[in-house]
Design brief:
The chain has 329 residues and is α/β, with parallel strands linked by helices. 28% of the residues lie in helices and 27% in strands.
């Protein structure tokens, strides 16, 4: 059909939950001021949940998943963007309640977009994606709390994943002594290459522990949650801080007030989904200055449209290292 294009579409009806590769038209896109010709997307943990239906990430049907995308404006009714402008999108419920990046076109609100930063290609922007954006936001949260490399080591949980890999890279470049926690100890060489000084097995943190443990790190970035975050907090040094940005192990937090009232530990929540425009621009500017692009290339790989669904399943099984770029166009 003339004018149609490729998209992954998630549907839930009497026949069940499914994700299908379809041909759709502009009329199938959701409302928004800007239509983007998508060139690249990425696969995040949340995308894996959306495609498989293992968690109720998608809350409107039918819907195109894909929480990130980069591309070029095709049409716009908003004065801030004109045809030909290179843009990126992360967050804002795209891929959850509004159709996202797993299609050759996307139509979204202008407020959700950010101009592609100078010096950054669309592919590299998606190598960063929500995961890298969240990692940088977490680093900035620690800095805003007053934490510096002089305070002591910083722990990164889920270090082999998307958020963790970028966090390790940024923190090491900023001069931190990085302790990387991973369930894949075979990735030690990879994490050391990114800048980690120590590697610990996630098993040290994933089982029930004591309200207060031996003080081991001054700061941390946690993308795991649940028992892991509880243990991370219990082992944080006096007046330290942990930025929490994920829930790979679970949404619960079985901890006590002990780390907070006996050591003055701070738990900093990081929400990258609805970060306002000015903050987004600031985060992307820090990414372009503080993330080693050569390392970024090394921790990312590119797949085609046909590989999105199997990769989504693999990321939930912990089989994907670093960042996955999807070449859409």
């Amino acid at each position: 059909m003339a004018g149609d294009f490729r998209a992954l579409v998630v549907t839930k009806d009497e026949a069940g939950y499914r994700c299908e590769d379809k041909r759709i038209t502009d009329a199938d896109l959701m409302d928004g001021e800007v239509t983007v010709r998508v060139s690249h997307s990425t696969v995040n943990f949340k995308d894996g949940l959306a495609i498989t239906g293992k968690s109720p990430v998608v809350r409107k049907f039918p819907l195109i998943p894909g929480i990130d995308f980069a591309g070029v404006v095709e049409t716009s009714t908003d004065a801030r963007y004109k045809p030909g402008d290179a843009v990126i999108l992360t967050g804002w419920g795209v891929g959850e309640t509004h159709s996202g990046g797993y299609a050759e076109k996307a139509r979204v609100k202008a407020d959700w977009l950010v101009p592609l930063p100078k010096g950054l290609t669309a592919a590299r922007a998606m190598a960063v994606g929500t995961a890298g954006f969240t990692a940088m936001q977490s680093v900035m949260a620690l800095e805003a709390h007053g934490m510096t490399p002089a305070d002591g080591p910083v722990l990164v949980t889920g270090a082999s994943g998307g958020v963790g890999s970028v966090a390790v890279s940024i923190l090491a470049r900023l001069g931190w002594h990085v302790i990387a926690s991973t369930g894949r100890t075979s990735e030690a060489e990879y994490l050391t290459h990114l800048g980690a000084k120590e590697i610990i097995d996630r098993a040290e943190l994933s089982a029930p522990g004591r309200p207060l443990g031996k003080e081991r790190w001054a700061a941390g970035i946690d993308s795991v949650g649940s028992l892991t975050l509880a243990n991370v907090l219990s082992m944080t040094r006096e007046n330290g801080a942990i930025a929490a940005c994920g829930l790979a192990q679970g949404m619960d937090l079985p901890t006590t007030v002990a780390p907070f009232i006996l050591r003055g530990v701070a738990l900093l929540g990081v929400n990258s989904v609805t970060a306002p425009y000015a903050k987004r621009v600031a985060i992307w500017n820090r990414i372009t200055s503080d993330l080693d692009m050569t390392l970024l290339d090394g921790l990312s790989h590119t797949i085609g449209f046909d590989e999105i669904m199997p990769t989504a399943r693999a990321i939930l099984e912990g089989k994907v290292r670093g960042r996955t770029i999807v070449a859409i166009g």
